[in-house]
Amino acid sequence: MLYSLRMLLMSAHFILAGMIGILIGLRRPFNPDNSRLCGRLYSLPAMRILGFKVNAEIKNLLEHERSCVIIANHQSNYDLFVFGGVVPARTVTIGKKSLKWIPFFGQLFWLAGNVLIDRGNSQRAKKAMLATTDTLQHKDTSIWVFVEGTRNKGRGLLPFKKGAFQMAINAGVPILPVCVSTYSNHMRLNHWNGTDILMKSLAPIPTKGLTQDDLPALIEQCRNQMQACIREMDEQLVQGR
C-alpha cells in the first residue's frame, strides 16, 4: 500500500518537476547552472516521498576546483534523486542520446546544457567528447559522469569507461570521485522507516602532466579508491542496523 502511494506521488512529482524545469530551461536555455537548480527540484521532494535518508560527507565536492570531471557510481534510476541535491554550480552531465525522448525529463535534460552522446555513432560520440574538453578548459564548467556507463543494479562496480578519464587528461583537470553506498538492493519503499544511504566525496585526483599512456593506471587508481569507499560505507550501514 505504501509502495503504491509513493509511486503515485513520484509520478505526479516527476511530471510537475519536469514542467517547472522546462520553464526554467526556456528562460535560460543551456545555462550550465540549470543542472544544479533542476537537480534540486527533482531531488528534494523525491527524497521525502521515497523515505530516503542520505548522510553525506561531501566537503571535497562542495569545495571542488572548477573545472573538474566528477565521477560517480551508478546503481539505478533513483540516482537522479540521490545525487540531484548535491550537484555543484556550473556542472553538466553526460548522458545517452535516448534520454532526450523521455517526456518532460528529456527536454529538460537537453535545455540544461547537458551533453548527449550517441553511442551508436562513434564519430558523433567522439565529436561530443572533444567538445567537452573545450568546456572544461574555457567555460568554467565541470562535467559529471556516471563512469560505469550503465546501472550496476547494486551488484558492485562495473568496469569503468575510458571517456571521463580521457577528457580529464586532455583538459588537464582533476578527477573528483563521489561514492554512494549500495542502496538499490536494500530499498524499503513499503516501510515507513525508509532507506538509509551514505554518500562521500573523495579527494580530487590531479591529471596535469599525464598522457593517454597513463590512462590504465589512472582508471585503476580511481576504481580502487571508489571500491574501497563503497565497501567501507556498506559495512558501516550493516553495523548500524
Structure description:
The two termini are 24 Å apart. The protein has helices spanning 2-27, 34-50, 59-62, 79-84, 105-111, 122-138, 163-171, 215-240; strands at residues 52-57, 69-72, 91-96, 115-117, 142-146, 175-180, 195-201. The protein has one domain (2-240): Glycerol-3-phosphate (1)-acyltransferase, CATH 3.40.1130. The chain is built from 8 helices and 7 strands; from the N terminus they run ααβαβαβαβαβαββα. The chain is globular and about 55 Å long. The chain has 241 residues and is of the alpha/beta class. InterPro entries: AGP_acyltrans (IPR004552), Plipid/glycerol_acylTrfase (IPR002123).
Task: Record keyword descriptors for this entry.
seven-stranded mixed β-sheet, alpha/beta, 7 strands, transmembrane, lipid metabolism, single chain, 241 residues, transmembrane helix, phospholipid biosynthesis, globular, Glycerol-3-phosphate (1)-acyltransferase, 8 helices, Plipid/glycerol_acylTrfase
CATH C-level class: Alpha Beta
**Number of helical segments?**
8
Number of strands: 7
CATH-defined fold name: Glycerol-3-phosphate (1)-acyltransferase
